[in-house]
Amino acid sequence: MITCYLRYEVRPDKFADFEAYGAMWLELMPRFGGIHHGYFLPSEGASDVALAMFSFPSLAAYEQYRKDSALDPDVQKAIAFARDTRCFVRYERSFFRPLLPEAA
């Protein structure tokens, strides 16, 4: 399994738009075989940072998602929404291999 960690710098006056953008991806990700672990919005500390995490069974599955999603009209709508609303300034993407508890 591979987990993608996203760190967004969100415009403080655009959190409602960012939440709408995140809701789009919460619905889109499973369509491509991914598991979305959610968006994490500021509560304490930095007020312009939001996080998101999603997983795929392998790096190859993630790469296939990138190819397939590039052709999806709903993904294009989500990308256009982010571009048009300018709800975030930038994002960073990192990949991790999770260590999870053994199944009982």
TrEMBL record:
It comes from Bradyrhizobium uaiense. This is NIPSNAP family protein. Residues 7-99 form the NIPSNAP domain. Transmembrane segments: none annotated.
